[in-house]
Amino acid sequence: MSRILPIVQLGDPVLRARAGDVTPAALAEPQMQELIDAMRETMREAPGVGLAAPQIGLSLRLAVIEDRPATVEGLDPEARADRERAAVPFHVLVNPVLTVEDATPAHFFEGCLSLSGYVGVVGRALAVRVDCMDETGTPRVIRARGWYARILQHEIDHLSGVVYVDRMLTRTFMSAEECACHWADADLDEVLAALDANRAP
Ligand code: ZN
To answer: Alpha helices, DSSP H only, in 132-175?
Structure first.
């Protein structure tokens, strides 16, 4: 039975540290599989589509990702198509290195389990490549576009002590509740214009 781990909130210095590599010896420890299981259950319970080790207080280059079919199928088809969002099976990133393959920015609201209750618009590269290992130490190359590429950029940022608020259009920062109330059906160009998102203070 896996534990649900507490998710640390912004302000905890672990979220601002550069995480250390997972060593082959650490990866082979039975506790590592228990940790990965606990991270998976914590992510599902939250619920979220990714969780990085610093978010549970561990400064390690380790993250889990899953975008479940039930979640994706429950979305408005137009919103899903705009975001290029498709289900992603559960997988583990160990010591990932991200390379942008298509820097065209896609702008959408995103949130973070470590800034619970808030969202902001972040421009993310449309396509990325990630070189990493899986939980067995096997090297993997991931090529991703759209929402999956966004999730990878968000989670791998956590491993460098970067949080989405560092990259967002600050005038789009808002409570998730107000976002659902005012902007749920708006397209992003409309949101950015209404909020005057590119205005300097
Ligand atoms: Zn996050």
So the answer is: 146-158
